[in-house]
Amino acid sequence: MIKYRYYSISLSIALIGFIIRLFIGIEGMHGTDILFHLEGVRSLILTGSPYCLANYNYPPLYAYLQLIGILAIGWNTLGYKIMSILFDVTLSILIYVTLRSLGVDERVSIVIQSLWCFNPLAIVTSSWYGLFDSIPTLFSLLSLLMMIKRRNVISALALSLGIASKFFPIIFLPINLFIIFVRERKIGSIGRYFVLVLLIITSIELVSVYRCLDDAIKDQFLFHINREDRGLSLIPWFPYSSLLSLVIPMILSLLLLLYTKSISLINIYAIATIESLALILLNPFVYPHYIIWSLPLMLITLTLIVHSITKVSILGVTLITIFSIVGLGYWRFYKVPSIAITLSYIYNLCLLTIFLSLLKLYPRLVNR
């Protein structure tokens, strides 16, 4: 009965978070990204591709998901944002389920779910701006959890859907392949997983790009390789620096995995967190919602490291408070150079501190 009571609490928290997001979501459209999202959906309806009539700078999956939301609710503000809101709230449930699956106490799992569900930065990202970063983040976490649970096919499907939403989940591919290698010691198993991910992504891409291949290549790949806007990033831009920000974290994760040769829970989630932090730190263009790529992993890893509910709560609240203030402050004052640059230094200093702390703790973590 106690088990089901906590599941009920988890669902209640998610429902409250969903209602909060709905009330904020109906307040109108804000920012320019959501306008580009809608152009992609209109292009998808008219041509069968989000790239033919729009500058759609993402992989194609979100255009289909957003279209489902619009068909369900209508061409209105809530219809435009509903999928981002639903996935954001579902991500909080997945955090709870992940922690419980990893053996974390029910109360601690509820606290960590609440820290995400009521995180102001997450709420503003999905319901005010209608940004969809929780979608690839959810698929990334699901892929790691399914790999740990030995559900390789579901893990491959989840990872593929994450990459088909935004490119960054590809950094978790080496971790999943390494787990298969250590667990099964069969090249064939590694190959099957890799081929399955490749086939799913290729199928989604081909359905969406063959009508306007040149536009799709330009919008999806060349835009990100050559864009020069920086946001919160302090990293100097140079050609292909965005590509390196994906490659270097993947190499780093492989080196750490080969160093430890361990697939313990704390090792896997610590490396995934380090990798995601490296991606953000090395990225030549960073905006507040990018922290969503890493924050759920930070909270999970923090919980695995620190078993006291008090310490987890204090550290979790501290993390979320810092990043929420920085993120929301940047969105509010990005046109004021002095404030924007100050916030970018604080933002990167916090990320770098967490990154270096995890690297320093890492040898002790894997020997626990």
Automatic annotation (TrEMBL):
GO terms for molecular function: alpha-1,4-mannosyltransferase activity; GPI mannosyltransferase activity. It is a multi-pass membrane protein. The chain crosses the membrane at residues 6-24, 78-99, 111-132, 152-181, 193-210, 237-259, 266-284, 290-307, 314-333, 339-359. Keywords: Endoplasmic reticulum, Glycosyltransferase, Membrane, Transferase, Transmembrane, Transmembrane helix. GO terms for cellular component: membrane. GO terms for biological process: GPI anchor biosynthetic process. It is found in: Endoplasmic reticulum membrane. The lineage of its organism: Archaea, Thermoproteota, Thermoprotei, Desulfurococcales, Desulfurococcaceae. Its main location: endoplasmic reticulum. It comes from Ignisphaera aggregans. Signal peptide: none annotated. This is DUF2029 domain-containing protein.
